[in-house]
Amino acid sequence: MVKTVELTTQQTRTQTGLSAAWWAVVSRFFLHGLIVSTWVSRIPAIRTSLALTNAHLGLCLLGTAIGSVIAIPLTGWLVTRYGSKRVTAWSTVGFSIALLAPSLAVNAETLFLSLILFGAMAGTNDVAINAQGVAVEKASSSPTMSRFHAMFSIGGMIGASLGGLVAARNIPPQFHLASASVLFIFISLLTAPFLFEAGDNRRKRSQALRPSRIPPVLVTLAAIGFCMFLSEGAIADWAGVYLKQDLNASLGLAASGYAVFSLGMALFRLLGDAIASRLGPVRTVRAGALLAAAGLTFALVAHSPLSTLPGFALTGAGFSVIVPLVFRAGGRVRSVASGAGIATVSGSGYIGFLFGPPLIGLIAQGASLRMALFVVVGLSLLAASLANAVRGASAAQEAHG
Prior knowledge:
Blueprint: H1 2-41, H2 43-49, H3 54-82, H4 84-98, H5 108-140, H6 145-168, H7 173-191, H8 216-247, H9 251-279, H10 281-301, H11 305-320, H12 322-330, H13 338-366, H14 369-385, H15 388-400
Helix pairs in contact: 1-4, 1-5, 1-6, 1-7, 3-4, 3-5, 3-13, 4-5, 4-7, 5-13, 6-9, 6-12, 8-9, 8-12, 8-13, 8-14, 8-15, 9-10, 9-11, 10-11, 10-14, 12-13, 12-15, 13-14
């Protein structure tokens, strides 16, 4: 009887700890979205204050992607070496501090350097929080990655909205970003003790993930990540331009293309775990990619700006569940440490995010922007054809466990 009571008490404590860890990870994804969108909301003001041309600003913004691509492989090793709890805790604080750096730039060169730092901390935090998410999900035996990613999208929408209100009041970026940085650091420190001690640093610390040792299933997952990040970057950078340039939309309506895309993504990420539980990860990824391809095709063949919006919303809904499921699968590949697997998928994705928008621009220059955006349709179909890799990673993990 005493043993039964002790066992019940221990189970209750475990469940309480997992619940607290779940909310701590939710806060990290939410913060990540807030930090990114807070910076994005002040880009126009910083561009004006530094008198940058569009070309100069575009080159500066490459610093973010470069910093992420450099940092992500190192982060996989850090998570394997120190555990995702510790790396998540310090990287969220570091990312919050790095938010202030762009507002202190005095010219294009210093802005570029500050954005390399910002991108490096963004990539580090991205890998760490996803490793924490995978660990909590595995411990709770309940799908939850899609909801974690939904919190990133919701944080992004809230940060962008608040940033727009602050910018409208002509509050200097330095004061805005410094105040936000302090608030985000406070939330990070407050929630850090509740992060999950995952034990994801118990594998051989000398085990490096060399290219020759990457399992084929992880290569395929990285390919899906590349397709999805490239596609999301292309929609983010070119949807508004397409609506304005090709369909003569007003500036406000042109901005609505990416807005409804983001809304569709956020809403379906909240539902994604339930959908994946019902359909299974493979059918969910395949259906999402096919929905995105159909939605974007609809948007690209439409003849008026308003009629494109349902297509862009469906594209966001289709993309919504793919990245969380691919990250989950990358963290569950047998013989690969969770952090290293996620870093491989994430690193491939950021490379796609880096080269995607310029690639669309080059194709548009030689053909048309509409034809260039059909590349995203093709990538969505490619991702659908590779969806079995999600099952392969899960099966490998189950066999290993």
